[in-house]
Amino acid sequence: MKAQFKTLLVAAVLALAGCSDEGGDKVRIGTEGAYPPFNMIEKDGKVTGFDVDIALALCEKMQVECEVVTSSWDGIIPALNARKFDFLAASMSITDERKEAVDFTDPYYTNGLQFVARKGQDFSTDKSALKGKVVGAQRATIAGTWLEENLGDTVEVKLYDTNENAYLDLASGRVEAVLADKFVNWEWLKSDAGKDFEFKGEPVFDNDKIGIAVRKGDPLLEKLNTALKEIVADGTYKKINDKYFPFDIY
Question: How many angstroms separate the CA atoms of 41 and 106, rounded?
Fold first, then answer.
């Protein structure tokens, strides 16, 4: 949380006690705000999306008052560890490398990576066919890492600060394809900007577990896991899922 906390201990005790922090400091949810439909900033400045709705539902189960704080993706884990917010709900993949810096809850959805490119374009996802192509992805993501590790010797990889900027370059022809989470691509393909593009090939990585991050050793983790089980069991999760997707992403 941003340093409005009198102490981190106060927030932790409030969360663990499962009681409202009325009159006290709010628990802060960190997210990016540039990853629709999971987290985005509306024209009125409100931060919304699947991640945000899930996080707020968890807060309600924990009986704590929460507010949303946005952060650039590149610095979002350092911001969590600098106590600019208390937990991170930003469609973050659970990886061994990240687990060295933060603790993760149980997964709250499963994603995968898939290419998108212009409709009608001859774009085979076979490695030999990709030779020399320019492919974009968001920096410091599973997609960016996968491209560099698996196709770095075959394609020109262009990395962006946000997925939205990768799509802008795709639409303008500065890259030939974008690799991103398939659900994020699905949302963009429905938009006016994405109407001339389509999925290419099958997902290249289809078991990407997404979790909520907290600082190492934070007892809030157990409370979040309990709340996650509760929103799945009582139908709250399904209601949020159905608001954004016509299929189950859990």
Answer: 26
Indicate whether 192 and 231 sit together in one domain.
no
Give the total number of structural domains in the chain.
2
Give the pLDDT of residue 39. 98
What is the reported pTM? 0.86
Angle value at C-alpha 140, between 134 and 144, nearest 5 degrees: 30
pLDDT tens digits for range 163-219:
999 999 999 999 999 999 999 999 999 999 999 999 999 999 889 999 999 999 999
Rounded CA separation 123/43 (Å): 35
Strands 87-93 and 27-31: parallel
My answer on whether 187 and 173 are in the same domain is yes
3-state DSSP: the chain helix, strand, coil percent, rounded to 5?
Answer: 35, 30, 35
User: Are residues 91 and 215 part of one domain?
Assistant: yes
- Altogether, the residues listed in the chain come to a count of 250
- b/e burial code for range 16-44 (CB count within 10 A of at least 16 → b): eeeeebeeebbbbbbbbbbbbbbbbbeee
Contacts of 219 (CB under 8 A, 6+ apart): 12, 15, 16
Distance (Å, rounded) from C-alpha 98 to C-alpha 247? 28
34-52 residue pLDDT tens: 999 999 999 999 999 999 9
